[in-house]
Each structure stands twice: as C-alpha cells, then as structure tokens.
C-alpha cells in the first residue's frame, strides 16, 4: 500500500489539471497554461494531467476566430464577439480558408439567436477580411438570393453591408454573368424591402441601394419605379437622421445622373403631388426633397420653384405651419441660390420675410442670414458691396461665438459669403474670440461637408491675395469697365485687399492655429476641398516669415499628400498639382531641409513635385513658380548625393531648358542649382564625360561665367571651381578656345567672391599638369594674379592665390 506522501503529488496534479481546463473554457489562456505547467511538473504521467494536456493540444489546433464565434453563438457572449472584431481588424491576423467559411455557416445557422448588433458586425467583418469568405457568400447568394437576404436581415443591417461588399468584389465571383444576375436580384429585393420596411430595415435598404447605384447605375436604374423613388425621396426629410439622408441623396444623385430626363419627370411628379396634398408632413417632405435635388438637377428644381405664384406665396403660406415646415422652406431657399433666376425671385419676393426672421427668430436667424448673403452677393454688380452684408456678418459672428455647436455650424456657410467683403475680412480677423471659435469649429468639421467647405472658403477669402496684373492686363480691365458702362470703376483694389493687409491676416491666422485645423480637415476631404486647402497654403506661404510655421506644423507633409493624391488630368486636378507644388516650393526655399525631412518623410518625396513646376510655359508670363521651384531644388541639392542624383536623373532635361531661359532671374536660379549639383559625381559627368553634349554644356557654363549678371557669374564660377577638381573636366576646359581666358578673367575680377572662384579654378588646373601651367604663363597669368592679390582682403583668396602662383612659377 502506497504512503500518503506518494499520493499527494498525484492529487495536487489532478486538481491543477482540472483547474487548467476550467481556465481554458473561460478563455483565461495564461492561467490555464500556468496550471497545466504546474501539473506536469508534479506528475507528468498522471492520467488526468495527460488528458488535460491532450485537450490543450486540440484547443491550440482550433483557430481563435472559430472559438470566439462559437462562444458568441452558443453562449451569446457579446465580449467574445467584440474580441472577434478586434482579431478580424488586426492586419497581422491570418485565417485558413476553411475557418472563414465555417464561421460564416455557424453564424448563418444561428441567425435568429445571435445577439444584435454584434452578430452582424462579426459576419460583415469576416466578409471584408476574407476573400474565401466572400467567395463562399457569392456561391450562396447565387443559389437563393432571397433566402440569404432574409437570413442576413435577422443577424442585422451590418450583415447586409457584408453582402454588398461581396456583390461589389469581382474576384469573389466565378463568372461575370453570375455576378451581374446576383446584383440585379439583390437590388430588386432591396427595393421591395424599402417599400415594405421601416426603421433600421429602411436604413440598410437605402444604404445598399445607394452603394449599388454608385457603381452599377447604368444596369440598375430602370428597376426604380415611381413608388421606389418616392420612398427614397421621402427619406430626404430634414427630420431623417443625417446618415439616412446622405444615402438617400447619393441614391437620388446616381439615379438622376443616369437618366436626367426620366428622373426629372418623376421628381416633378412627386414634389407636385406632395405640395397638392398640403399637409404639414407632405409640405415638409416636398420642400426637403426640393432642397436636396437642387444641386443635382437645378433645371428641374428651378422649374418648380419658378412656377407662377410659387415663390410669391411661400412666405404667406407658412402662416400657421409648424416650425419644421418653415425650416424645410428655408433650406430649400438656401439650396435654390445655386440658380441665378431662383436667387432673383427670392430677392424680390422673400427678402422682407428673411429680414423679419433675422430680427425676431433666434432658431432660424442663421439660415435666413445665409440666404440673404447668397442672394445679395450672387445678384449684385461685380465690385459693388451688397447692402447690409456687414450687418449679416455681425449675425454670423454672434452665432460663431456661441457654445451651441449647431449655431456655429450654421454660421459657416453664411460667413463664406460675408467674407467676400474686404471690410468684413478685416473686422473678423481682429476678433480673437471669433477666430478661436471659428478655427475650433473648422477643426471639428470632419464628416460635415457643408460646414467644412464653408469654413475652408472663409479661410481662402481671408488669406487670398489679389492676382498681380501686368500693365497690359490693367489696361484691358479698364477697357472692359468702359465697355460695361462702368468707367467709374476704380483700378485700385480696396485697401483691405492690398498685399500688406492680406499678409497681416495670414500672420494672425497662422498664430491662431490655422495649419493644425487644415491638417485635421484633410483626414476626410473631398477633391474640391483639397483644391481650396492647396490654394490656402499657397497664400500662407507667400511671405517668407510665414514659411517656417507652415513647415513646423505639418504643412509640407500635407502638401506632398495632396500632390500624390491627384491622379486625373481635369482642370481642377491640374490646379491642385500646381498650387500644392508651388506652396511646397515656397516653404522649402526658406526652410532647412534637415528640420523638415527625416526617415518618415524622405527628402526625395519633394523632388518630383518641384520638378513638375519647371514644365510651366515661359509664354504664360508667370515664371514665379519656376523660379521658386529652382530655389527650393537648390536648397534640397545641398543635402546629400542621393538627392542630387535623383534631381539629375529625373529633371536634367528640364533644368537644361531653364538654363537657357530669357528671364535673367530664372537663368540665375538654374545656375545656382547647377552649382550645388556639381557636388555630385553625376553632376560633374554631365560636363566632363568626353561626349559632344558634355562639351556643349561646358561651353554654356563658361559663357555664363562671363555673363553680365554678377549672381549668375558667381554661381557659374562656383560650379567651375568644383568642376576643375576633376581631371576630365580640366581637359575639357583646356580644349575650349577661350576656356583659360575666362578662368583667368574671373581670377582678376574686382568682386572678391568672383576673384576667389577664379583663383581656385586656376590653382586646380596648374596643379593638375605642367602643360596647363605653361599655357597660363603664356597668357601672363603670373603678373595678372599677383596684381589681383594685392587688392585681396580675404585670407582664403590670398592662400589659394599663393598656391596658384607657386605652381605657376615652379612649372
């Protein structure tokens, strides 16, 4: 019989093995491993311990995602679902093909019992993360789309999102025909669900319809009948959640774009029927829908608005109506201002009504003020300040300094119009409280496109410089004024729009934190907003003192992102490329590259945007972008050989063209860039590889060393000083008829800097070969250099000159 002492380790080991399995079941992996390790150390051959060990091995073979999905389904464990989401969103996670399909089938089989909304989120995330999962779902949809849609609806709207991801993935389908058929089937089912559902079902149906129309409108728009369209349009009601309204707007937009004529007729029928019904609900939906479709089909919407008696009767018809109806009418008026005739009608028939709201209704003061600003700025003569715009600006200012976020958001669009007036720009930029609230609101406008666009327009108005006009352009403008019967128009700009005032406004905005606000906006930004931000940076960087703050606060990285984001060739795309690269050039002219670039943002990333500016046609008269790009490239070329080599490799042909420019400033800047590029062997090779092309380049370089412009001569002399350190370059110079004369001429110039470069060149050659020294002696170099050194004050010039004389006399 064994002693109790011999039994004790087995008993304790069994307890630990049991405990480890309990930990394993509850998901406490670390505790389970610790307990099992203790059991194995006490009794490695104990049956209970070995059984626990084998259970561990089986558990380790099961994918963590499968275990979490099982816990979610079997135990309704929401925490397991959250962990599954984290695992699926981890880019380092890997899942076997069968794991994704098994988890999908598990979730579908228990669709009625899975907790909402976590089940739908997990299924959707599996479909986003796993191609094999999407392929499996595609096969299932192809077999019975209706049954699959009903099952997914039980799991939640997020699961439907996963279905749409599958429909839109070409790689998930075995054939194009099957994909198209499934998209059509599901689209028709979404329309059916839309017409019969409500609440969350209505939301995910609209979202799915919008997403499918966004990419397949041509094939799908014919399935949308009057009833379906009216259901979508009813979601444009201002009382609808923002997310639902945005998807309904997208669906309407794609439908209209595909067949504007049919869509216009259907839209008109819907709005007319709602207006005729005349209940508060019907009117609210009609006005909300009209506001939403104005930017999409302004002709159709304006046709309704300009129907005889419609605008005239708007204000009187609101008597006794709910505030929601009045709000919808005001939003419709605001949207209608995109159309000139509609603006004029509102100005004539509704101005008194809008002014009354501003005086007495705090709820709608902001939108009414915005409409008046649009009407007055959109309808008046150019250059004539509209009446009352200063008073409207005061209203927007009061709204902006309130604590209410909605009030501040509403003020943005109105301010975009009010800040077109120079005096308003000046008054607002001097208001510290306003500026602080304004920039906070702009920074928080991500996801609010109207607010962001309005805020960016305000900044653009405050920072925008007037274009520089040549004398000829000024005369043309005067002639145009006379032709328009406006001889009294002033050729001089408003004092508040003069450069010094704009520069001061830029300074105030920079100190207030406008760059961080612009960086925050760029996280989710439309192409049109990118265009505005790029132009803002171009203005902010015009003054040299402002460039450091722009660079320090993230402006360089953002400008590079904007430049890289443009892939098209539309007029807007070209403007974004030009303004972002030009602003980048301005900043890099005045900034130490080592303070801006590093491992996360290499210097090389700025080279191509800067070189692109050299494409500007000299006949366009505006050579400032070219000039500033050359200065920025010169700055970058001072960093290292890899940057210099990239500039040479990518931009050499453009650089050579600008070297021959008729503009002396452009030619000088190019020569200064070449001087820095000469520090690289690749730069030297362009002038000294023995080819005829290199010989021609050297001829130009020597000619520029004898140019009238001192700065150009100085840069060319610096390039020659570095070039003559190479024997091949020296040989090429000696072969030129006047090569030695030009170098000797530099050495005896009165200008100390030119003299320094000249004696360096002479020293480099005479120390290379006795033959070169002899040639210089025959030209009287000893006496000429000796006389030149008598007037030298720079110790370096004297030292190099003495070395040159010594070599000349010894040779």
TrEMBL record:
<dbReference type="GO" id="GO:0051879">
    <property type="term" value="F:Hsp90 protein binding"/>
</dbReference>
<feature type="domain" description="UNC-45/Cro1/She4 central">
    <location>
        <begin position="228"/>
        <end position="375"/>
    </location>
</feature>
<dbReference type="GO" id="GO:0005737">
    <property type="term" value="C:cytoplasm"/>
</dbReference>
<dbReference type="InterPro" id="IPR024660">
    <property type="entry name" value="UCS_central_dom"/>
</dbReference>
<keyword id="KW-0963">Cytoplasm</keyword>
<dbReference type="Pfam" id="PF11701">
    <property type="entry name" value="UNC45-central"/>
</dbReference>
<dbReference type="InterPro" id="IPR016024">
    <property type="entry name" value="ARM-type_fold"/>
</dbReference>
<keyword id="KW-0143">Chaperone</keyword>
<dbReference type="InterPro" id="IPR019734">
    <property type="entry name" value="TPR_rpt"/>
</dbReference>
<keyword id="KW-0802">TPR repeat</keyword>
<protein>
    <submittedName>
        <fullName>(Perigord truffle) hypothetical protein</fullName>
    </submittedName>
</protein>
<dbReference type="InterPro" id="IPR011989">
    <property type="entry name" value="ARM-like"/>
</dbReference>
<feature type="repeat" description="TPR">
    <location>
        <begin position="13"/>
        <end position="46"/>
    </location>
</feature>
């Amino acid at each position: 019989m064994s002693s109790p002492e011999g039994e004790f380790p087995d008993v304790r080991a069994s307890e630990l093995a049991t405990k480890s399995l309990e930990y394993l079941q509850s998901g406490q992996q670390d505790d389970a491993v610790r307990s099992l390790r203790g059991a194995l150390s006490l009794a490695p051959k104990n049956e209970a311990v070995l059984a626990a060990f084998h259970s561990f091995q089986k558990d380790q073979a099961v994918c963590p995602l499968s275990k979490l999905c099982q816990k979610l389904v079997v135990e309704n464990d929401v925490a397991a679902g959250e962990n599954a989401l984290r695992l699926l969103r981890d880019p380092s996670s890997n899942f076997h093909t069968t794991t994704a399909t098994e988890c999908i089938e598990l979730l579908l089989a228990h669709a009625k019992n899975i907790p909402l909304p976590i089940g739908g989120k997990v299924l959707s995330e599996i479909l986003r993360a796993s191609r094999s999962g999407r392929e499996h779902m595609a096969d299932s949809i192809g077999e019975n789309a209706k049954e699959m849609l009903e099952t997914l609806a039980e799991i939640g709207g997020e699961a439907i999102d996963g279905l749409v991801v599958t429909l839109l993935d070409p790689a998930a389908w075995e054939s194009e025909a099957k994909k198209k058929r499934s998209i059509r089937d599901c689209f028709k089912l979404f329309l059916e669900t839309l017409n019969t559902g409500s609440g969350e079902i209505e939301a995910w149906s609209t979202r799915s319809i919008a997403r499918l129309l966004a990419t397949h409108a041509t094939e799908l728009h014919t399935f949308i009948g009057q009833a379906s369209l009216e259901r979508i349009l009813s979601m444009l009601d201002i009382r609808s959640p923002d997310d639902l309204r945005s998807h309904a707007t997208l669906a309407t937009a794609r439908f209209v774009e595909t067949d504007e004529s049919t869509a216009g007729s259907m839209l008109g029928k819907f709005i007319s029927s709602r207006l005729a019904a005349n209940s508060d609900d019907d009117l609210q939906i009609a006005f909300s829908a009209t506001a939403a479709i104005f930017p999409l089909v302004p002709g159709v919407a304006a046709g309704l608005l300009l129907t005889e008696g419609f605008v005239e009767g708007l204000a009187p018809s609101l008597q006794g109506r709910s505030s929601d109806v009045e709000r919808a009418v005001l939003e419709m008026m605001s949207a209608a201002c995109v159309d000139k005739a509609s603006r004029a009608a509102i100005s004539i028939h509704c101005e008194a009504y809008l002014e009354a709201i501003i005086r007495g209704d705090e709820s709608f003061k902001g939108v009414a003020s915005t409409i008046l600003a649009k009407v007055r700025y959109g309808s008046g003569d150019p250059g004539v300040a509209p009446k009352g715009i200063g008073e409207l600006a005061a209203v927007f200012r009061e709204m902006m300094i309130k604590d209410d976020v909605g009030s501040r958001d509403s003020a943005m669009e109105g301010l975009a119009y009010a800040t077109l007036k120079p005096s308003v720009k000046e008054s607002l930029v001097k208001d510290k409280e306003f500026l602080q609230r304004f920039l906070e609101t702009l920074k928080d406008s991500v996801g609010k496109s109207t607010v962001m666009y309005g805020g960016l327009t305000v900044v653009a108005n405050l920072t925008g410089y007037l274009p520089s006009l040549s004398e000829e352009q000024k005369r043309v403008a005067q002639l145009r004024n006379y032709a328009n019967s406006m001889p009294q128009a002033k050729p001089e700009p408003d004092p508040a729009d003069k450069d010094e005032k704009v520069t001061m406004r830029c300074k105030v905005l920079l100190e207030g934190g406008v760059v961080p606000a612009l960086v925050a906006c760029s996280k989710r930004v439309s192409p049109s907003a990118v265009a505005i931000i790029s132009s803002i940076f171009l203005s902010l960087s015009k003054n040299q003192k402002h460039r450091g703050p722009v660079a320090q606060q993230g402006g360089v990285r953002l400008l590079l992102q904007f430049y890289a984001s443009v892939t098209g060739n539309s007029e807007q795309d070209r403007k974004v490329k030009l303004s972002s690269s030009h602003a980048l050039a301005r900043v890099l002219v005045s900034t130490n590259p080592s303070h801006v670039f590093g491992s996360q943002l290499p210097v090389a990333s700025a080279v191509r945007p800067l070189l692109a500016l050299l494409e500007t046609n000299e006949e366009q008269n505006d050579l400032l972008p070219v000039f500033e790009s050359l200065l920025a490239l010169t700055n970058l070329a001072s960093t290292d050989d890899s940057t210099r080599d990239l500039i040479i490799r990518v931009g050499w042909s453009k650089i050579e063209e600008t070297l021959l420019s008729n503009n002396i400033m452009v030619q000088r800047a190019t020569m200064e860039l070449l001087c820095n590029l000469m520090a690289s062997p690749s730069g030297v090779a362009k002038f000294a590889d023995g080819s005829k092309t290199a010989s021609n380049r050297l001829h130009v370089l020597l000619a520029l060393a004898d140019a009238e412009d001192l700065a150009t001569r100085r840069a060319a002399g610096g390039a020659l000083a570095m070039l003559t350190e190479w024997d091949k370059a020296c040989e090429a110079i000696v072969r030129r008829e006047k090569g030695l004369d030009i170098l000797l001429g530099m050495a005896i110039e009165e200008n100390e800097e030119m003299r320094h470069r000249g004696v360096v060149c002479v020293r480099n050659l005479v120390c290379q070969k006795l033959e070169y020294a002899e040639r210089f002696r025959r030209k009287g170099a000893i006496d000429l250099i000796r006389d030149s050194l008598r007037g030298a004050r720079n110790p370096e010039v004297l030292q190099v000159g003495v070395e040159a004389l010594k070599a000349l006399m010894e040779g």
